[in-house]
Amino acid sequence: MRSHRRQRIRAVLCGGILAAGLLASCTVLPNGRPGTEPGERPLRSPQPSASPAPSRPVSPSPSASPSAPSAPVAAADPAVGAFLGSGPEGVRRIRAMERWLGGTRLRAGHTYLPGRLWSDIEGPPRLLEPWARWQHADPDRLLVLNVPMAARNEAGLSDARVRTLLREGAAGHFDGHFRKLAERLVRQRLADTVLVLGWEMNGTTYTHRCGPDPKAWKAYWRRIVTAMRAVEGQRFRFDFAPSRGRDAIPWPRCYPGDDVVDVLGMDAYDQPRGLRFEEQVREPYGLQAHVDFAARHRKPVSYPEWGLFRNGDNTEYTRRMLEWMDRYKPLYQTISDYCPHGVWRCSRNPASAAVYRAALGPGTQPPRQSGQTQAPGHSRPAPPPSTPRPWWDRCWGPGRYCVRLDWLRALGG
Predict the structure, then answer these.
(1) Does the pLDDT of residue 23 top 70, yes or no?
(2) I need a labelling partner for 13 at 20 to 30 A (CA). Which of 120, 189, 292, 405 fits?
(3) Residue 349: partners with Cβ closer than 8 Å, 6 or more residues away
(4) Residue 306 burial class via C-beta count within 10 angstroms: exposed 0-12, middle 13-18, buried 19 and up
(5) What are the φ/ψ torsions at residue 165 (nearest 5 degrees)?
(6) How far apart are CA 38 and CA 33, in angstroms?
(7) pLDDT tens per residue, range 165-223
(8) Within 284-375, where are the H helices?
(9) What pTM, to 2 d.p., does this model score?
């Protein structure tokens, strides 16, 4: 009897040790809601979350407060367009792209001022005039103009030199250049232009970058907007448009204030290599953080630059980006239509071109070129299903917690 009891005790102890070893080799996670993988949020969640398993520590994205609205201000009639060239060639190509789309109107025209000389930033009439004629032909059209904040804007100046320029700008040294630009736009009857001022300021490409001195950068932005708004007849809207993600500096650190920003833009290309669309949504300072920030500040959003890039002819990115923009109703969105980003003028991306054309061609529903915003309480379409995870990476077990059998992954392949 005693020996049998000792055998049972030994068996229980061995079983406990074995179970503890198995659990130590597994990953225990909070169980997700129906329809989601554990630890993930649905795509339409109003709160941003960090990218899964970052290789190095990252700063968390700003999260919305419980009382903040869940979506930015929706445009009643979002304008779709493309960047097709800065000068007269860009105007001519709009009609050709409309024919390629089967007659769909491109209401947003997008061009850039050169940034080599201050005279470029003052708005050369030879560049503005073709766009003025295009805009005047249809009062429903929207002109989007990217405006550099400094001359020699792509000259690779040092941080020390950029810091000096930002402080000079904040002190008013360059006011006259922007006043002249405003006067020329009003004279050309382009007083309602959307001005994408100092775009991608959170990166390192441009002289007008924010990182060397965020405080001076914000003061300089405010100085420019004040100078341009002082010109009689203007109705400009100023678009603050960082690049997606953290880049060199978290873009909220550069935000100059609600009183001098009318639109919250984001340049969002399909990069870096291997980053899935869900991760572009959830990454720190990514797509979700952008719409959350706009919601808190009660601003409309825009996508001045978007398109394919590091992941090639990626139909998943193209489709999901179009659905994302249809969901949040930006004031405008303009794809960068040249290689490697484009879908019409770039022959490298035929599959994505077919997705884009099917979505924006006549007789399609989302994404809509015009129409009413969704009625309150109207449910948004659920995000498309993602590729199923391998069995060893799924969660098993009921209740609040589940077990993922990471230790068995070697048996999967």
Answers:
(1) no
(2) 405
(3) 308, 312, 313, 340, 342, 343
(4) buried
(5) -65, -40
(6) 7
(7) 999 999 999 999 999 999 999 999 999 999 999 999 999 999 999 999 999 999 999 99
(8) 287-296, 315-328, 350-360
(9) 0.73
